[in-house]
């Protein structure tokens, strides 16, 4: 079957999207500019394009997901790809097949795009070496979640008109968060000022070397911030006690109206989801549309993933 040709489109010089680290400011801008176009397309009645006709996308998720899996599926389908979600609970993975054997098996079926989420940092990169197609990291352990950082950036850029010279506070469980790591890389590349706020137990040792300002006091850290990015406590990655009780954590680090009042008046609240209301964020604040852009992030997620699928298949479509 012939695929729609992408004639004279600007190329994207990466075979895979494994992380934000390694991308340039120009490449991030290229992804965001293209995603902006997909936002418009997704708001039309006819959302479908035949750009990826004939191409096969497999979504391989070893960890649970709602937003990322759904939006990658929607993104592929809106671009015309055949999209298959491989369930790890009903496949041979349950019978003990290794990641690399699964990769070789899928590779033999000639997919064009493999979207992978895995609980171990580095697993997606390892898998990318075993397959011939483009691999997109949909979150690997505590390491990176590049499309999340890109959709966060798109949300911020559309609301604030720029990324440079803004102050973003990333709050809570930074230690276990791939979202935080990808965002720190991206925001540093784009010239945004980054603060991390959390208890010492939930901040990685030496985090200041990543080009961020460190705060342990939420009110101090939020002063003058344009963007507040709240993180879920990743209890599934915790072995031991990182904070005394949930109610104590909420009173010190949970975002409520009082703490929010210390940020800029027009501060924007982001959360990658899933949210734990009453743990890291107060329900009223999460639903306060004057500040919260959480639902908008979900919309941007589909557009950003369409842009990534488009860019990573350009050279293939050019030569087909
Ligand atoms: N959904 C995001 C992730 O997969 C954030 C989270 O789970 O808290 O990393």
SS summary, helix count: 12
Order of helices and strands: HEHEHEHEHEHEEHEHHEHHH
Shape: globular
Q: Bin the strand percentage.
A: 5-15%
Overall average residue pLDDT:
95
The largest beta-sheet arranges its strands as 7-6-5-8-9
- The quaternary state of the protein chains shown equals single chain
Number of strands: 9
Would you give an account of this structure?
With 320 residues, the chain is α/β, with parallel strands linked by helices. It contains twelve helices and nine strands. The strands form two sheets. It has a five-stranded parallel beta sheet with strand order 7-6-5-8-9. Helix 2 (67-78) packs across helix 11 and helix 5 (146-160) crosses helix 6. The longest helix has 19 residues, at 294-312. The mean pLDDT is 95. Residues 139, 145, 178-179, 232, 234, 272-273 line the site of aspartic acid. Aspartic acid (ASP) is lined by residues 139, 145, 178-179, 232, 234, 272-273.
């Amino acid at each position: 079957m012939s695929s729609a040709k992408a004639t004279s489109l600007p190329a994207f010089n990466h075979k895979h999207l494994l992380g934000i680290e390694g991308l340039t400011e120009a490449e991030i801008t290229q992804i965001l500019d293209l995603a902006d176009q997909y936002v418009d397309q997704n708001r039309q009645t006819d959302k479908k394009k035949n750009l990826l006709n004939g191409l096969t996308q497999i979504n391989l998720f070893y960890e649970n997901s709602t937003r990322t899996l759904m939006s990658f599926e929607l993104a592929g389908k809106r671009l015309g790809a055949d999209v298959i979600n491989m369930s790890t609970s009903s496949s041979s993975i349950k019978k003990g097949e290794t990641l690399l054997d699964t990769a070789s098996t899928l590779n033999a079926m000639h997919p064009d795009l493999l979207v992978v989420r895995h609980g171990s940092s580095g697993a997606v990169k390892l898998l990318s070496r075993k397959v011939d197609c483009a691999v997109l990291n949909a979150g690997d352990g505590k390491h990176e979640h590049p499309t999340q950082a890109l959709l966060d950036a798109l949300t911020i850029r559309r609301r604030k008109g720029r990324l440079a010279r803004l102050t973003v506070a990333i709050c809570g469980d930074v230690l276990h968060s791939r979202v935080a790591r990808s965002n720190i890389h991206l925001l540093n590349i784009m010239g945004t000022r980054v603060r991390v706020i959390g208890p010492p137990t939930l901040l990685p040792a030496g985090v200041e070397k990543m080009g961020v300002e460190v705060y342990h006091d939420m009110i101090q850290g939020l002063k003058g911030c344009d963007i507040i990015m709240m993180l879920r406590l990743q209890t599934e990655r915790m072995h031991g006690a990182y904070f005394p009780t949930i109610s104590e954590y909420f009173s010190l680090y949970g975002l409520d109206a009082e703490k929010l009042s210390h940020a800029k008046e027009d501060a924007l609240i982001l959360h990658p989801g899933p949210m734990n209301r009453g743990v890291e964020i107060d329900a009223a604040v999460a639903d306060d549309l004057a500040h919260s852009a959480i639902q908008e992030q979900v919309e941007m997620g589909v557009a950003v993933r369409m842009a990534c699928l488009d860019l990573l298949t350009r050279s293939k479509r050019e030569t087909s």
